[in-house]
């Protein structure tokens, strides 16, 4: 039977294309208060209900006057009132009059300019009584220091399209425009299956040849950081009946099923035959280091990701293939990691073979050039190679050892702050 994939494995780009082509976004949505929307995806466009700020507001603490042009030093006004944030001056300002105004307070009708208080000096009425007055002592510039009523938004402006991941800035802006809640897409429920006869929980005593289970902790934390907490997890031995049972349960309860381990070609690697039995193998094997034994397919109707058992390979393929799929399942834009060009800080010994995503630290040289520092073994079993990594260096398949200074593309392991 012809294999539906090249023998050496699928190039990463092609694998990502096939994964995304097979993923249909979930249709559910829910309305949540803003405080619970961080990291979620907008399910519909949001428009400003009203203009914001909605009135002309002072940008400075000072005095509002009717003068359109900057007044000259020595000019005087009589002080007739005050406008504070939330306590506007009710009257109409006339020529020759000024009011005290605070930052953020509404300008009264007739006012055309605010004089920052540093430019004027108030004068008390003399012995004969009369109004308090104001005298121009400084040199006014052209800025009238007035914030336009529609500076942030006009009524009906689109504040946000559908399909956008909500960060602090978007949520803050929605609040500033009076929006209290919003419709967001439901999140995919992620089921995680961890398999391996050799695995014991961290903290438990190890028998001969046993290792402490780490992929559960690693993947759960990574997925949580990406905004997709794992909703169910099973740890199962390399036993086909137990694995079949766990896969069926996870597929029943979750929108996407992810496994780690048991996906290469050994005689206790059950994931692929079980996927073929319970659903369909879309493709198996990537032309990638780390991450060659990777399976994608369907478990019944659910997308399935068989990540390798080696921890680094599991984390890298989760970032490269599972994360885009989760973004698409949620109905959001699939946002790739930013790519940039960096130079190797030191020579890198390697053999040509598979395209590699090497873990590196980002350093900035004195002249501002971006440098990649690859430290220690890049074995896919060594989780330490992920620790502190800022970059995944994209090393082409045909590249052998690389000299210091070699320019390479790299993916920046950073999420947006705002
Ligand atoms: N003949 C071949 N052998 C292997 C190939 C191959 O192409 N031909 N590929 C190698 C590569 S590359 C990788 S990566 C591994 C992945 O194999 P599996 O996905 O089947 O994973 P396992 O064999 O179950 O485990 C590999 C390794 O990782 C450890 N492991 C597994 N699960 C966990 C866990 N939850 N926490 C911590 N460590 C875990 C496991 O003990 C093994 O050491 O296959 C190569 N072999
Ligand atoms: O793909 Mo494996 O992760 O190279 O060791």
From TrEMBL:
<dbReference type="Pfam" id="PF00994">
    <property type="entry name" value="MoCF_biosynth"/>
</dbReference>
<dbReference type="InterPro" id="IPR038987">
    <property type="entry name" value="MoeA-like"/>
</dbReference>
<dbReference type="InterPro" id="IPR005110">
    <property type="entry name" value="MoeA_linker/N"/>
</dbReference>
<dbReference type="InterPro" id="IPR008284">
    <property type="entry name" value="MoCF_biosynth_CS"/>
</dbReference>
<comment type="function">
    <text>Catalyzes the insertion of molybdate into adenylated molybdopterin with the concomitant release of AMP.</text>
</comment>
<keyword id="KW-0501">Molybdenum cofactor biosynthesis</keyword>
<feature type="domain" description="MoaB/Mog">
    <location>
        <begin position="191"/>
        <end position="328"/>
    </location>
</feature>
<dbReference type="InterPro" id="IPR036425">
    <property type="entry name" value="MoaB/Mog-like_dom_sf"/>
</dbReference>
<dbReference type="InterPro" id="IPR005111">
    <property type="entry name" value="MoeA_C_domain_IV"/>
</dbReference>
<dbReference type="InterPro" id="IPR001453">
    <property type="entry name" value="MoaB/Mog_dom"/>
</dbReference>
<comment type="pathway">
    <text>Cofactor biosynthesis; molybdopterin biosynthesis.</text>
</comment>
<dbReference type="InterPro" id="IPR036135">
    <property type="entry name" value="MoeA_linker/N_sf"/>
</dbReference>
<keyword id="KW-0460">Magnesium</keyword>
<keyword id="KW-0500">Molybdenum</keyword>
<protein>
    <recommendedName>
        <fullName>Molybdopterin molybdenumtransferase</fullName>
        <ecNumber>2.10.1.1</ecNumber>
    </recommendedName>
</protein>
<dbReference type="Pfam" id="PF03453">
    <property type="entry name" value="MoeA_N"/>
</dbReference>
<keyword id="KW-0479">Metal-binding</keyword>
<dbReference type="InterPro" id="IPR036688">
    <property type="entry name" value="MoeA_C_domain_IV_sf"/>
</dbReference>
<comment type="similarity">
    <text>Belongs to the MoeA family.</text>
</comment>
<keyword id="KW-0808">Transferase</keyword>
<dbReference type="Pfam" id="PF03454">
    <property type="entry name" value="MoeA_C"/>
</dbReference>
């Amino acid at each position: 039977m012809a294999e539906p994939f090249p023998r050496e494995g699928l190039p990463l780009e092609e694998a990502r294309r096939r994964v995304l082509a097979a993923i249909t976004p979930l249709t559910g949505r829910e309305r949540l208060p803003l405080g619970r929307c961080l990291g979620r995806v907008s399910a519909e466009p949001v428009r400003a209900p009203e203009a914001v700020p909605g009135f002309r507001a002072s940008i400075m603490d000072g005095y509002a006057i009717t003068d359109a042009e900057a007044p000259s030093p020595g000019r005087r006004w009589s002080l007739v009132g005050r406008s504070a944030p939330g306590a506007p001056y009710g009257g109409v300002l006339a020529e020759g009059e000024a009011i005290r105004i605070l930052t953020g307070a509404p300008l009264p009708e007739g006012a055309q300019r605010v004089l920052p208080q540093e430019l004027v000096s108030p004068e008390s009425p003399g012995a004969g009584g009369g109004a308090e007055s104001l005298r121009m002592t400084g040199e006014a510039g052209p800025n009238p220091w007035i914030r336009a009523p529609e500076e942030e938004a006009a009524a009906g402006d689109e504040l946000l399209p559908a399909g956008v991941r909500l960060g602090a800035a978007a949520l803050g802006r929605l609040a500033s425009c009076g929006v209290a809640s919003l419709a967001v897409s439901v999140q995919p429920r992620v089921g995680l299956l961890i398999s391996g006869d050799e695995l014991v929980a961290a903290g438990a005593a190890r028998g001969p040849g046993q290792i402490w289970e780490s992929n559960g902790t690693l993947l759960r934390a990574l997925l949580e950081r990406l905004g997709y907490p794992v909703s169910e997890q099973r740890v199962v031995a390399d036993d086909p009946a137990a694995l079949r049972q766990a896969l069926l349960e996870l597929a029943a309860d979750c929108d996407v099923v992810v496994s780690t381990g048991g996906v290469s070609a050994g005689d206790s690697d059950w994931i692929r035959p079980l996927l073929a039995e319970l659903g369909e193998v879309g493709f198996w094997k990537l032309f990638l280091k780390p991450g060659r034994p990777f399976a994608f397919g369907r478990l019944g109707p659910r997308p399935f990701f068989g990540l390798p058992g080696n921890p680094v390979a599991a984390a890298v393929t989760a970032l490269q293939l599972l994360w885009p799929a989760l973004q698409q399942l949620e109905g959001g834009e699939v946002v790739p990691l930013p790519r940039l060009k960096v130079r190797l800080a030191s020579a890198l010994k390697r053999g040509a073979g598979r395209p590699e995503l090497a873990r590196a630290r980002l350093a900035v040289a004195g002249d501002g050039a971006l440098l990649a520092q690859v430290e220690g073994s890049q074995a896919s079993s060594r989780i330490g190679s992920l620790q502190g990594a800022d970059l995944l260096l994209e090393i082409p398949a045909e590249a052998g050892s690389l000299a210091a200074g070699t320019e390479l593309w790299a993916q920046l392991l950073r999420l947006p702050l705002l």
